[in-house]
Amino acid sequence: MSAQRIEYASLAPKAYQAMYGVNLALQESSLDPLLIDLVFLRVSQINGCAFCIDKHAHDLLRLGEDFQRVNNLSSWRDTSFFSAREQAALAWAEAVTDIIKNHAPEPLFMALKENFNEQEIAELGFVIALMNGWNRIAISFQQSVAPRPRAALAI
């Protein structure tokens, strides 16, 4: 990928800080930080955001997530690695990310209600919306992925 098109964070600092503030608020939500990053990573995979995929895969490993789960997240339906709660969140994240295709169907929402309370569902909605926003900013402004030193990869 070529160089970043513009320095969006410094050109629109108030907007950048507002989005970052939502991220900080979500880190203090009732949702498990690992679940948040799993959703961040899955949304980023769907959107094809290399910068965000790299960041959230690394964050998950740093937080102690199992490599096999991170590595197989894009094929979560074909594994037994994810709990019913995680599966409901991932299915909802996929539906909301590709909302034009299926308009967030009722059966997926009902699966959410079986696994999350209403506060958690609302927070999950913000997790998904935020990551879709970050993905669109990073992709459209060509945020590049910096190579990580080998030592940084050995979590």
TrEMBL record:
Residues 14-95 form the Carboxymuconolactone decarboxylase-like domain. One of its GO terms (molecular function) is peroxiredoxin activity. Gene3D superfamilies: AhpD-like (1.20.1290.10). Pfam families: CMD. This is Carboxymuconolactone decarboxylase family protein.
